[in-house]
Design brief:
about 65% helix, 2 domains, about 200 residues, mainly alpha, Arc Repressor Mutant, subunit A, homotetramer, DNA-binding, elongated
DNA sequence: TAATAATCGAGACGGTACGTCGCGTCTTCTG
DNA sequence: CAGAAGACGCGACGTACCGTCTCGATTATTA
């Protein structure tokens, strides 16, 4: 993950750890001060970090890659599912989404970067591949187990079903920031989708 | 809405409607050709539109404001619901969302602009108030009629239910822009949420 | 000379004399405030004069032509030569040059415009044709009369001779602006060139 | 003189000498092609020189300062006088003036830049001190030797006499560009001023 | 211990786009 | 008609960053 991963030890002066830290620190500082990604120039980072521009480019190909590393470092770990039932797994999954949504709202940095991420294709793709997709896969696995266990109908498109569960949370977090993310939300969503909303009988 | 809204008629030559259109058209063209917003320079728009840069800056303070107007200009009109049943209404509502997602241009634009807008609270609020909220209200009304008609359980949170229907479509359009939006999707979503996904019996 | 010269009286609303005056006045004001010709935009003149730009362009094709009129209005009249002798005529001619040189030094406007004139070919040519050339012709005529009267050798190139007389004055006025232009200068120059500077006998 | 004068060696990549030369060369080219100074944009110079605009602005604050340096760079070296006689010295001096006037580039440049310079007193003074004054001094020395050798009357104001010799050449070069600067001109001027133009006897 | 080699801060390089200003022309409405 | 007002397409302004490229000066490892 970090740019100074262990290598076969090459000759010459090694990369400065102080520079690594100074770059990261300067970037976080500038983001915390409210800079947009667009306004956050490599030149500004280098200047703030007291570092040459080339020192940054030596570590990352561009702005976006730097942010990918930055984002991954603050992303919470994948949720661990209880495995007791499909319902429990789905609730746990949505709960972790909810927690992140809450964190996102409290962390200026996260909010700042998240909302701009889609403008930077490489950044978005990297985030998609390393964060969103794995988590989607976890959800699909849980659904498959649910089908196998007879908890979920076998004739439903699981991709769609997954979106059915995740959609509302993501909508409230990303599309409609400010919406409520109250504690019971995951259960509500899961039960509504599992049971349907037609009157019984 | 448009920059040349009706005014008390100021002196001097009036803004050219042809220029208005040329700018909008050029921007949509460039976006449709795959330009990201950050790669979409005012200079390129002006050149493509056959218009001076100042003519653009005379209308909008910057790129962001231009995109908000653009967004509104491509926004399809509110859907007309058949009113035959809650299911039909919801399908019609989601179908209009799907159509919007399909329009390649519109989708690229939505995808690009949505996040940017969140950085400008007032602009986001304006868009929210004039586009998102009315449509949400239409959905909520349909759901209320469904409850009254006995098609939907009375004990469900309608706000949440609305998100349940809309979430998947928005997720696929905005969050996961490459995802499929096949013709039957609205029906699938509506039926899945109405019926639930537990095995029958 | 003025833009509103007498004409065959055309139909429609006549040119406003107030506008004429306002334009001239505004230009002189701006020059007096120290604006360079370059910084003196038509836009600034129009704004200062409370006049539309088209009103200026209706009178003069461009900036330079406006200045030509302005310059001519402050240029002293051609000198009247006594005609008593070639020497007297030349002294009178150079005296008028000297007077203008003195005026140029005292008038910020003249100094300002003169020193920039050469940058504006049309302005310079117009000035050359209407001011410099006629005065040169007057000098040449005086020289020819001197030759005819036997005061000046017949084998001298009169064009060159004229430059010999005028050169020093122009040099001190234009090229070396701080140089002295003391009262007796014209006589000194004329006598030196007429008599030569070799020791007598 | 050049913008890259010897300095205590500052950190960072040093200014490119190739860029220096390319800028100077491009400007001279454009001037030689007949561009007026006002038509000579920094953008055109940069483009012609294959250089970024910033590279020019890094060296000179603006157009004016660039031209001063240019002027000095094309200024021919001070003439070497034969010393055989005052007449020979003066002819040599004027010949060097004539040569300078003939160089098409230099002439165009001189004509264009001279006046501009007068608007910037310090720049003018610098040019005066380093170019004009030394050359004037050379002329004055030659005249003094002429007086000492009995070639020139002792009662003439040498300052004025110098202007008498130099004036015509400068007039034709700077004030009346396009005038003839034929080969024999220096001799003609020197002889005319030395001998006077009154009929002999 | 010396040579070698990759690093460091610094800053110049050729570019692209920025947002502004003025050009000279062209509408619009008002006198 | 001419007036002012001001928008139009155009092109240059001077600035900010881009990502790359020298510089002289440090550090390490290898010989």
């Amino acid at each position: 993950m970090t740019p100074t991963a262990d290598a076969p030890r090459s000759p010459g002066r090694p990369r400065s750890v102080r520079a690594d830290e100074a770059i990261i620190e300067a970037t976080l500082d500038l983001l915390a001060e409210g800079s947009t990604i667009e306004a956050l120039s490599i030149e500004a980072i280098a200047s703030r970090a007291g570092v040459g521009k080339a020192t940054i480019y030596r570590r990352w190909p561009g702005k976006e890659e730097l942010f990918v590393d930055l984002l991954r470092s603050v992303e919470p770990p994948d949720p661990v599912l209880p495995g007791t039932s499909a319902r429990d797994d789905l609730v746990a999954l949505l709960e972790s989404l909810r927690q992140r949504g809450l964190a996102k709202r409290t962390s200026a940095l996260l909010h700042n970067v998240f909302s701009q991420m889609q403008l930077y294709p490489k950044l978005w793709e990297a985030y998609h591949a390393t964060v969103i997709e794995p988590r989607r896969r976890i959800g699909l696995d849980a659904l498959r187990r649910g089908v196998a266990a007879g908890e979920i109908r076998a004739d439903v498109d699981l991709e769609l079903l997954n979106d059915l569960f995740v959609g509302p949370l993501l909508l409230r977090t990303v599309i409609r920031p400010g919406a409520t993310l109250e504690p019971g939300l995951p259960e509500q969503v899961v039960d509504a989708v599992l049971d349907g909303v037609r009157p019984k009988g």
